[in-house]
Input
Amino acid sequence: MSYDPIQLELFKNRFASIAEEMGVVLRRTSYSPNIKERLDFSCAIFNAQGEMIAQAAHIPVHLGAMPVSVKSAIERLTFEPGDVAILNDPFAGGSHLPDITLITPVFIKAETDDWQAEAPKEVTPATFQSSHLPTFPLFGFVASRAHHADVGGMAPGSMPLSTEIFQEGLIIPPLKLVERGQLNDGVMQLLLANVRTAEERAGDLRAQLAANTKGVERLLEVINRYGPAEVSLYMAGLLQYAERMTRALLAGLPDGVYEFIDYLDDDGIDPDPIKIAVKITIQGDEAQVDFSNSALQVKGSVNSVYAVTLSATLYVFRALIGLDIPANSGCLAPLSLIAPEGTVVNARPPAAVAGGNVETSQRITDVLLGALAQAAPSRVPAASQGTMNNVLIGGWDPEEQRAYTYYETIGGGMGAGASGPGADAIQCHMTNTLNTPVEALEYAYPFRVKRYEIRRGSGGEGQTSGGDGLCREIELLYEAQVTLLSDRRRLAPYGLAGGQSGQPGRNTLIRHGQRVALPAKTTQILQPNDIICIETPGGGGYGKKTAGNNV
Output
């Protein structure tokens, strides 16, 4: 098939704008600071087979995982107009339990001489009982994934130092939250009965429903304007375009086998480092990415599920292309991923996985970039901070007379490259969130932010220097349970081409003026006026430093 290149570009932006508008609706209607302020969500559109056509510029770790969720829902459910599926099961395409995905099918009326698309909201339950029910072909799906600040489990925030997934919160397999336009109150009440902040969860879920409704509305407008045949044609064209560009990238790299090994500090249960190893074999315009030499799955929560490992792989190769091509499933066509079951990169249930999404995904990214730096040294940066520095605090707010849960990831240093120094104080690689502004944090939670500044000198030196990390100090006003889930506290982010490593991060408890070092992964009950200090890692440097050349 041939495509008009101008129309292909226009459709690329039409589809992306639908996902972006979904994100605007989700942000503006959400309740929690984690979604409203930090933008910890992603929105995307899919074809009828569950292949992702477009994702907004949201969270990279959701990039490859969301299609697995949609395909899992397709396999397990029979969709009808007006349905909305919900799931968070990491072993069914989810990333970890706090990330809840809502999936809405897009149906169109059967084509006639005066064809017109029909929105699902026009279909009522009574219509389905009629023997004259018209045909509603399934055209595609829209989906939103949002990180909910609590979904139950053994600790506020649902990212504890767990040893099995059942300790991490409520597991939601693919099921229908909305059936034929009617909210399933039983499903909603079951979910809200198992979380600490029910009102906030209900508000965020309804925000996701609103976002999906907007996505369906906008996609139907495009179908009404151009007809389903042309829209389907350019959906397929964008998948092929992304595949061609990925193949062109691989064909431009030298054939060969490229290997790299890096380690997580520990799993929070056992002190031993955890190996993540990759072997990338490039041959022509295809690549095999093999994680077979990685560690077996571990006791702690840093196990990654297949969908997360796939997301990290897709992100790295998509980023290496460097052009404004669509972030869709076509990028995966030339890639073959080997992630053996039972390993830390493809854990079997009931493994604990809360940290795999946020910490192991970062190390998977580091080893992929370390391997590809051998094939394209001038295009790959040194290691970035390699952690999301997860901070979770929950308890009872006596002033507001309510329970609360706070979740945040904290930025750090980006790795330097041949083209320039790494950025300071930024969310790196697999996360793309903002910070919670001090004013919003202190308004929403019983905390006081004592310090928030760049950690000067934490980036590795080199011909170009790594970016500096951050320092954030939070003082508790009342007793609370605090969980830290972080890494790169012992093993520093690597430099490349002779550049120095970035400085590892530090976690510290300040109590009555005394400083006590905290582990990378810990859960503790802290007292009023205790201060948590998080110092995040700097990025690695690039190239050997000589007099006057450190930038």
